[in-house]
């Protein structure tokens, strides 16, 4: 049983390490690379909180040396992992949502903030937080601070393993990752191989582009979190090996 991890670095290696601890062999095949953008931040004074939908935003803020002036803000994180990374970065007041943009919007709306929300985000957004929070009387200032750039080709080791039927499952964590993987894998997989390849996905939203591209063997985690993905990977590996 070998699995393919499609996350960007450094998350690829972190997930591979967790899989190794479960005695699951894995190959890294990041389909995107993070690039920090030249962002023009508004004055920090006046913001009631900051929203985070990815640890990549924290990494970009660190690259830009902006973290020190932001540490006084209350942070609303999309999930436990992002919340954990925010605390490690020095933020003292951190609230975690349930792993989706909808749950984050609900959490922020219920907080009844008295001021705008700063949202350092990626260039490619999966949802419009500003529009979602507007009916609640909250203004969101979205500042793109990073971009996830698609790779043009899967690593050769991953291509060979996929084509040779050596991959027992592919871990996919975002919708855009799914879209890019489907395009890149089309060059080394037949339609029959795509239909047979198990795709372990964080959510239905993540899985949608794969189903549209004829990857029909899709498994979903119980919750949009790394812990749930590891539980899914372990259960699937045990089922396949009979252990």
UniProtKB/TrEMBL annotation:
GO terms for molecular function: uroporphyrinogen-III synthase activity. SUPFAM superfamilies: HemD-like (SSF69618). Residues 19-230 form the Tetrapyrrole biosynthesis uroporphyrinogen III synthase domain. InterPro entries: 4pyrrol_syn_uPrphyn_synt_sf, 4pyrrol_synth_uPrphyn_synth. GO terms for biological process: tetrapyrrole biosynthetic process. CDD domains: HemD. This is Uroporphyrinogen-III synthase. It comes from Devosia equisanguinis. The lineage of its organism: Bacteria, Pseudomonadati, Pseudomonadota, Alphaproteobacteria, Hyphomicrobiales.
